[in-house]
Design goal:
Bound molecules: 1,3-dihydroxyacetonephosphate, iron/sulfur cluster
CATH class of the largest domain: Alpha Beta
Order of helices and strands: HEHEHEHEHEHEHEHEHEHEHEHEHEHH
Structural class: alpha/beta
Radius of gyration: 21 Å
Number of helices: 15
Strand content: 15-25%
Number of strands: 13
Largest sheet: 5 strands, parallel
Helix content: 40-55%
Distance between the termini: 42 Å
């Protein structure tokens, strides 16, 4: 659907007025109407680095979700202000691990006598509180593009990893990339006493996976992979590692959003692809590659509803407010949380 020309003109005018003062970041899952105003686009890893590389921008407008804006605030200087055009753009996965629940989990691990062997590895898709917990306990952050390197680093520090909050990325990386077995993994359920695990299970496990998942990627099923293979002979199935293990196992290729984009850029004309990731990105890729057949892996799966909250009206309101000198929707992490979260993020940025 084309964007409202009046809103496009207003966004353009406000952005022009702000000039170098503003830097707009757009995650790949954002709407086209928003992406057209992004100074850079990327996956969560690239955007974290891009935010840190813009010290001259007074305002960082983050078109993505809350945890990404928090990470940008942590990685930018105190002078810079990070803005999320709609404060309701959260992430259901990040919400699956609260600071209290994670502190309780650490008590369970301590009581089982395993905490000393555990290195926390937290997915970027987590709140600043969880990142701070990770930093306090000597762990690292990871994204879907460096999860393997993060786990290699973590297993060089300790015998066990507490991976949170996405059980699927944790399991897929451990089994696909690290040669572990499914039996090496246990799932910690924060809604059950002791995480629903016995002391023996905690002692035997190498990967303790937090029971969280992405409400978009978690919905792709093995049936959809089988169905698309039947419907489109010769199709290559390419999915994001936030998908369930059975989906990832049945796919031809697995990778982060940046990986998916590069794989399709490199694919020969006439090739056929079924993509298991967010719909805005898949539609954009299909449009960008008219010489290839690119379909969405499962037609019953939808957009990420919170990513989609950032729309052109919110962006216009944000840019016009900033152009008038009014700072709206600032995301600010408190100093203590920032200190420890930054330690964990910097460890990630320093991974080989
Ligand atoms: P990446 O941007 O790291 O591929 O993660 C996907 C995602 O779900 C972001 O919310
Ligand atoms: Fe969160 Fe999934 Fe949406 Fe990413 S796609 S913001 S992980 S709910």
């Amino acid at each position: 659907e084309p964007s409202d020309p009046d809103l496009v003109a207003r966004a353009r005018a406000a952005k022009e007025k702000l000039g170098e003062k503003v830097f707009v970041l757009g995650h790949h899952y954002q709407r086209d109407e928003v992406i057209q105003f992004a100074d850079v686009t990327g996956d969560s890893f690239k955007l974290a680095r891009d935010a840190a590389a813009r010290p001259e921008a007074e305002y960082i407008v983050f078109c993505g979700v809350h945890f990404m804006a928090e990470s940008a605030d942590i990685l930018t200087s105190a002078r810079q202000r990070v803005i999320l055009p709609d404060l309701a753009a959260g992430c259901s996965m990040a919400d699956m691990a609260s600071a209290e629940q994670v502190a309780e989990c650490w008590d369970v691990l301590t009581e089982a006598g395993v905490a000393e062997q555990v290195v926390p590895v937290s997915y970027m898709n987590s709140s600043a509180d969880i990142k701070a917990f990770t930093g306090r306990h000597g762990g690292t952050i990871c994204t879907s593009s460096n999860a393997k390197r993060a786990l290699e680093w973590a297993f060089a520090q300790g015998e066990k990893v507490l991976f949170l909050p996405d059980q699927h990325l944790g399991r897929n990386t451990a089994v696909r990339d690290m040669g572990m077995s499914l039996d090496d993994c246990v799932v910690y359920n924060p809604h059950k006493p002791n995480g629903g695990l016995t002391t023996e299970q905690l002692r035997a496990a190498k990967m303790i996976l937090w029971r969280g998942h992405c409400s978009v990627h978690g919905r792709f099923s093995l049936d959809s992979v089988n169905e698309v293979r039947e419907r489109i002979p010769g199709v290559r199935v390419l999915v994001h590692p936030e998908c369930k293990h059975e989906v990832v196992s049945a796919a031809d290729e697995v990778g982060s959003t940046e990986y998916i984009i590069k794989a399709l850029d490199a694919a020969p004309a006439g090739s056929k692809w079924a993509i298991g990731t967010e719909l805005n990105l898949v539609r954009r890729l299909a449009k960008a590659h008219p010489d290839k057949e690119i379909v969405f892996l499962d037609r019953t799966v939808c957009f990420c509803s919170t990513m989609n909250r950032i729309d052109l009206p919110h962006l216009v309101w944000t840019l016009e407010s900033l152009a008038e000198g009014k700072v709206v929707n600032r995301i600010e992490v408190d100093a203590e949380t920032e200190f420890f979260a930054k330690a964990a993020l910097e460890r990630m940025l320093a991974l080989p």
